[in-house]
Amino acid sequence: MDTPQATVYIIDDEAQVCAGLARLVRSVGLQPQTFTDAAQFLAHVPTEGVGCILLDVNMPGMSGPELHLHLSEMGLSFPVIYLTGVGNVPLSVQAMKRGAVDFLEKPIDAELLLPAIDKAIALHRERYVHDGRLAEIQGRFGKLSAREREVLAHVIAGRLNKQIAYDLGIAEKTVKVHRGRVMAKVGARSLAHLVHICDELGIEAAAGGGRN
Fold first, then answer.
1. pLDDT for res 205
2. Strand pairing class (102-105; 51-56)
């Protein structure tokens, strides 16, 4: 799956800092976008694409940690790198627990920042590909008929064709047909692969069965 060019979102109330970081980001072939406060960023918050956020801790209005929490509640998955003018161990620990990639002190050292950006973007590319693959698989499952979904639930529970036929009150031959269609529509290579896909999507097995 192809991924778009990465964008680095720089949120800092100091214009000179934004400009300097933007130049640095461009120098390594990445696309910067700068914002002077949380409100400005939220007015143009990205909903797709790949990248990361460089987030100042202390800003007027909504602080960096407050914005990070808000973005998490929105379900925005862009990794965050905190930038701060004053070292604060408790705050850095809290930031890392919240999922921040790094917590760097100003003035920012390019030799520390660039590897952190690389790491953050690599993490987001993985999420982007993973989420895209799951969306594609969900689309395949959406093509299953109601009966095929019933058969699927029994199949991943480890039920034999004859057991499924008895439970659903249909012929064993019909179960085989539905089972084959399920495998084809979902793109499963084997029963183990089908079970793995269902686990990823949170599809539950029929009650009363036990996987082999």
1. 85
2. unpaired
